[in-house]
Write a structure and sequence with these properties.
Chain lengths: 279, 303
Amino acid sequence: MTKSTTAAPDVKELELLARRIRGKILEMSYRAQTPHLASQLSPVDILVAAYWGALSIDPKRPDDPERDRFIFSKGHAVPALYATLALRGFFPEAELERFNEAGGRLSEHGFPGCAPGVELATGSLGHGLPVGIGLALGARLLGRKSRSYVLMSDGEVEEGSVWEAAMFAPARKLETVAAIVDFNRWQATGRSTEIMALEPLADKFKAFGWSAHSVNGHDIGALVGLLRNVPDGSGKPVAIIANTVKGKGVSFMEDDNNWHYRTPNADELAKALGELGLK
Amino acid sequence: MRNAFASEVTALADKDERLVLLMGDIGNKLFDNFKKKHPERLFNCGVAEANMTGVAAGLALAGLRPITYTIAPFNTTRCLEQIRVDVCYHALPVVIVGVGGGLSYANLGGTHQSCEDIAFLRMLPGMTVVCPGDAVELRCALRAAVAHDGPVYLRIGKKGEPVVHKSEPDFKLGRALVVRPGKDVALLSTGNMLPEAVGAAERLAAAGVSAEVVSFHTVKPLDEAYLAQAFARFTRVATVEEHSVSGGLGGAVAEWLADHSAKARLIRIGTPDAFLHEAGEQEDARRRFGLTAEAIALRLVEK
């Protein structure tokens, strides 16, 4: 299996992209008055690290069978993926302005084939990892280089199907799968670490036979390093526990779970964009 | 039927390199030949049906033709959301095989009986539901299912069922097969009830009633052309299935009938809205629910 072969990107440029994506997310939530804003802000640095720093993809050939697959399994946060794909060149940025319009193709949860680069329709949690594993298994059978990256929320790993999948992939020595957990420590109604015994999360994956890493989920350089290093030579699938802050990037949204459901008003949007340096 | 499945799936895998067989920790010796010939395309996914179904969807997205295989309730209602979201929402060519459909495993209790699966799967958009009547039909149905460009639920029996077809019929998904022509009443059987339906027709013939026996193997999409002419020709049309009278073939035909005017009366023969709370084999459960040739024949001569 080949790893990412392109040169490591400039982290400063990626940080600027992350701010721009956060701005798009805020604008979409404001315009469409759609929730899950804070859940969309926490995985942005992971998306940037993957789409600009690690994935073997070509926006001009979104159906290339040899491409890496990024499965955005925390479907409620899919606007973050839409913004990422648009800025990465999969479709025009102007499409983001029509997010959630009736009859449009960018809905609150993506549907199959809704936009180039959206690999799987998600929304119900716990579906992405088994499908990503199936894609990687298929690639191996077909002699393709494709890797599967599956981004999950921490609330999502409460689903039993995640742990069925977590037992399956190591038994098949499927080293081309990366499970990434956006560990922002909140789920819809409270602290994820209190509602269920999530911790120690990296150790759980280790115990299930994964090569597990814990990382600052906003350190783009560190994320690029981990995401490029799949497979990592251990013969095991790779789990990346990305420790993140829900609502990251906007001071008055950070770690405030009210923004799981709240949407910004005009003043809040302006203030948030200002903090991101996007005025 | 399961031996015919194992033999046919191996023959298909010989010809089609895209075919991948996933099993949920059953069929211990059943797939030895498949394993010997195509070890890289057989995966025992363990007792984890949700994952197995999601993995199958991923394999299909990669361009392969996966088949999932385990006991009917575990491969349907246990992982219904994976079938709905991963497979059907994405319109993927995954063949879901439920072995031991209906009362096949009556002796194993309500957990292993499956008299609701047709109803659940028939509701899913894009899903084709096929219940072959015997081992011969099963081979045809499996070939058609693998060739079909979308999700298919293949509901099969266990082993040792009587074979009805002397040779391979002209099988098409969605087209009912007349097994025995008749003039007075019609018995539309789906799945492993076919031999009982034939037996019922023989009894009815002795009583002076000419019964047409049809293997209505595809519950979705319904063979509406056959239904239209059957409800015009006969006085009574009975559906026969090892499945609840709600939601299965009888339910599907009742829905069709609600939208059409017809001469014939519909009689739904199947299991009631109840679990079975007693020990016994498939034959005992069939007797309990009036699913024997004798009981079926009686329903057709009743006024």
